[in-house]
Each structure stands twice: as C-alpha cells, then as structure tokens.
Design a protein that fits this description.
The protein is of the alpha/beta class. The protein has one domain (about 30-165): HUPs (Rossmann fold). Helices cover about 50% and strands about 15% of the residues.
C-alpha cells in the first residue's frame, strides 16, 4: 500500500513539474536583476547543466544589455573554487562586463541561493528574474513563493543526456521539500 501511495505521489509530482514547464515558459519580461543559480563544477569549469544556465544568461544579456546578473553558488566540498567565481569567469569570457555581475558565494542549496541573492537586490525593484534549468524551476518557484520572493522564471533547457536522471532526481527533491515544509508548519502549530 505504501509503495502504491509513493508511486502515485511520484507520478503526480513529475507530471506537475512537466506541466509547469510547458505552461510557464516566457522570456518577454525585462528584468533589472537576474539570479543565475549554481549547479556544480568540474575543476574550475561549470558542468554542462550549469553551462546551459550561463548560455541562457548570455543570450538574455544580448537582448537586455543593462541587466545585472547575480551568480549564486558557494564552494562545495569537492570544488576548487566557488560556483559563483566559475560562473563569473564564464560570463566575463562571453564579454559580459564585470559591472553587470555580482557574486553571491555563500549558498549551498537552492533555498540559500534565493535567500542570499535576495539580500543583494535593492528592495524597491520592479522585476527580478531567475535562471535555472527547466527540470529545476518548479522547486525554485516553490521556494521563492514560500519566502515571499517574487521572481520571473527564465527557463534554460536541460541537456538531452541528463533529462531522465535530472527529472527523476528533481521529483524526489520536490517531494522531500514539500513533506519537510509541511511537517515544519505542523510542528509550529502544535
């Protein structure tokens, strides 16, 4: 019975993530600031997933060259430099000026990416965007809503070779965080 319930929740959550992607992709909004979420390094270079996010930012910059990008990601245990430093280097090589890039180098989770980046953005801004891969954006929006951070999602694609593993992993992460946050809310009411 428990296996059936988990399977149903898993399928429902995966369907919700995929539906969100197909119903929410829009890049017509000009954002004053755009947060680019970190996603791991290979040495000092971004992994493929992260390159997709950074390439999306480069494309966005060509359309809106006055955008300020916040590259968000700390240094993992197995990383030589912070994700934010590698991301900044990648954007600089693509001719995005240093003045258009702010580093947030303390975060280790998606929630921390948002919380720490939010502190770097002026309070009265009209429009703030966030770039992540399509598989990850549902969780990003979930966290943003829970902390009251209004963000405009900018979806980067996911490499074809990684789609199955990333969507499966993300589905489990969404289930985990929804259960965790629900239990935390219940504990406050008891």
């Amino acid at each position: 019975m428990l296996t059936f319930i988990f399977s149903a929740v898993f399928i429902f959550t995966l369907g919700t993530i995929i539906s969100d992607i197909h119903n929410s992709k829009s890049e017509k909004i000009k954002n004053e600031y755009v947060i680019i979420l970190g996603a791991g390094l290979r040495g000092t270079e971004p992994k493929t997933i992260l390159k997709y996010r950074l390439n999306k930012a480069i494309k966005y910059y060509k359309k809106y060259p006055d955008t300020i990008f916040i590259v968000s990601g700390g240094q993992g245990k197995d990383e030589i430099i912070s994700e934010s430093k590698a991301m900044k280097n990648y954007l600089l090589k693509a001719s995005i000026p240093n003045k258009n890039i702010i580093e947030e180098n303390k975060s280790n989770t998606t929630l921390e990416n948002l919380l720490f980046s939010q502190k770097l953005i002026p309070k009265n801004l009209y429009s703030v965007g966030v770039i992540s891969n399509d598989f990850h954006m549902y969780r990003v929006k979930f966290f943003a809503k829970n902390i009251g951070f209004k963000l405009n999602p900018i979806y980067a694609d996911t490499p074809n070779k990684s789609k199955v593993s990333m969507f499966l992993r993300e589905t489990l992460a969404v289930i985990y965080y929804k259960v965790k946050m629900t239990l935390e809310k219940w504990s406050f009411t008891l």
